[in-house]
Amino acid sequence: MNTPGPTSGLLHHVELWVPDLDRAVRSFGWLLETLGYERFQDWEAGRSWKLGPTYVVVERSPALTGDRHDRRAPGLNHLAFHVGDPAEVERLAADGTAHGWRLMFPDRHPFAGGDAHYAAYLENEDAFEVELVAANFDAGR
């Protein structure tokens, strides 16, 4: 009997090459585990965390050509994650400072993405950006 696999088109994994594995594990590990991901793989140059069929990898590759991520250059700009509600967005944004994240666009928080979009934009020490989007937000309130 064949068990159906994941939905076609669903993201399989994302691999982020990082300049410092310890910093990446501190920031991404905390965030991903807080969001419900479980530690999946662990090797000398990398780690991964999995939620459902999707996993996220941070790796200090020997083929890395630079020492800093630039989200404004061609390539990955940021990762966006669903979060339960505005209170959870605020809690994660506040707690993130102890794990290497800082709030971006504080003057426009939590509506830096527009009035109908409640989110926190965080950047870690290596300039990787994540967006934490409140899934349960009614802009009409």
Automatic annotation (TrEMBL):
SUPFAM superfamilies: Glyoxalase/Bleomycin resistance protein/Dihydroxybiphenyl dioxygenase. Residues 10-135 form the VOC domain. It comes from the Bacteria. PROSITE patterns: VOC. This is VOC domain-containing protein. It comes from Glycomyces rutgersensis.
